[in-house]
């Protein structure tokens, strides 16, 4: 009986040692190790992070944010350039849809800023549609002044918070 107990302990130790063994080729791969994405192409967490078809690339290289002047929802020439790049990316990556978030600075009432954020998001949506992005892939939401990027009461902070952000995500069923 004593030998059976010792054999059981040895088997448990060997079993635990096997569990802690690093995975080699053919083992389970961590999709986020070394900056690599998971299996498949074009989905969130798929492909190489920063690859041209990834949401990370969209955010960092194409640019997901445009800014507006005080109380304006008119697109500046810089904003149009960024949005043209966004439209190009969305047209090249049809497996993604986008939510356009409209934001405002802390000045003004809550109701006014919700309406202003909605106008800003709609301006972006209309521009993207004019560049060939299917309307069914775009949705808008206004956060008004509820989700500030910068929290302080200076013009620099206000400028950062007057924005529209295009958030891409894989389309349902893709």
From TrEMBL:
Residues 1-25 form the signal peptide. Residues 56-172 form the OmpA-like domain. It is a lipid-anchor. CDD domains: OmpA_C-like. SUPFAM superfamilies: OmpA-like. The Tol-Pal system is composed of five core proteins: the inner membrane proteins TolA, TolQ and TolR, the periplasmic protein TolB and the outer membrane protein Pal. They form a network linking the inner and outer membranes and the peptidoglycan layer. Part of the Tol-Pal system, which plays a role in outer membrane invagination during cell division and is important for maintaining outer membrane integrity. This is Peptidoglycan-associated lipoprotein. It comes from Paracoccus aminophilus JCM 7686. The lineage of its organism: Bacteria, Pseudomonadati, Pseudomonadota, Alphaproteobacteria, Rhodobacterales.
